[in-house]
């Protein structure tokens, strides 16, 4: 693990230990970059798909987190976007994309630096920092009904000056819908049932 990212590695370990991702589940990582410590935490227990806008290795797929094709990476059990949202212009769009590509009950796990230097290059910019309230708001507006956001500190850091902000959102499980197909002559059947009931119960009023 990278000592400088220990709070994020601890957060990922907590997600794994929580059981929110089923064993052998499909896990997509957005913005893999050079963070192979994340790779080591995830690759042995899940079907792991590392991606990046500008892949640094052949085994990392090219993928723009703001424009994930509808026919790729469908029904994921989890999506990790660690140290990514500060590098995209439209973080809400990224989280909406994540929700769309998760299966019901799937989670997105997010982290981004807070007290950290500006870091960008010719491929990616550095657009924002988010407080825990800001990340929670993004997760809520992206459609995650259940979400969590918090500040994470390195040892010795001052309160309210955290190194990272982390959080997760869970996609709602769809409630089963029942559809009843009525026969074409349903009205005739209803009238016949009314007539039969009235004949058998002449002193009572029928209310539908």
What topology does this entry show?
Elements (H helix, E strand, L loop, with lengths): L5 H13 L7 E4 L6 H7 L4 E6 L8 E2 L13 E7 L8 H11 E12 L18 H10 L4 E7 L11 E7 L15 H15 L8
Parallel strand pairs: 1-2, 1-4, 2-3, 4-5
Antiparallel strand pairs: 5-7, 6-7
Description of the molecule:
The radius of gyration is 25 Å and the shape is elongated. α3 links the parallel β4 (76-82) and β5. It contains five helices and seven strands, in the order αβαβββαβαββα. The chain has a seven-stranded mixed beta sheet with strand order 3-2-1-4-5-7-6, sandwiched between helices. α1 packs parallel to α2 (36-42). It has 208 residues and is of the alpha/beta class. It has a single domain, classed as Vaccinia Virus protein VP39 (Rossmann fold), CATH 3.40.50.150. The chain has helices at 6-18, 36-42, 91-101, 132-141, 186-200, and strands at 26-29, 47-52, 61-62, 76-82, 102-113, 146-152, 164-170. Helix content is 27%, strand content 22%.
């Amino acid at each position: 693990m990278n000592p400088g990212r220990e709070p994020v590695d601890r957060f990922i370990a907590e997600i794994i230990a929580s059981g929110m991702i089923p064993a052998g589940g499909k896990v997509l990582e957005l913005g893999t970059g050079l963070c192979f410590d994340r790779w080591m935490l995830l690759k042995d227990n899940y079907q792991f798909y590392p991606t990046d806008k500008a892949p640094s290795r052949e085994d990392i797929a090219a993928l723009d987190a703001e424009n994930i094709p509808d026919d790729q990476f469908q029904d994921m059990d989890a999506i990790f976007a660690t140290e990514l949202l500060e590098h995209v212009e439209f973080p809400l769009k990224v989280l909406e994309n994540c929700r769309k590509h998760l299966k019901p009950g799937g989670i997105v796990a997010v982290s981004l630096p807070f007290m950290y230097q500006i870091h960008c290059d010719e491929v990616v910019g550095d657009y924002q920092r988010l407080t825990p309230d800001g990340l929670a708001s993004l997760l809520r507006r992206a459609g995650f009904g259940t979400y969590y956001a918090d500040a994470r500190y390195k040892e010795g850091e001052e309160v309210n000056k955290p190194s990272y902000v982390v959080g997760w959102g869970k996609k709602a499980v769809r409630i089963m819908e029942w559809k009843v197909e009525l026969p074409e002559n349903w009205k005739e059947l209803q009238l016949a049932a009314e007539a039969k009931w009235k004949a058998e119960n002449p002193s009572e009023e029928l209310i539908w």
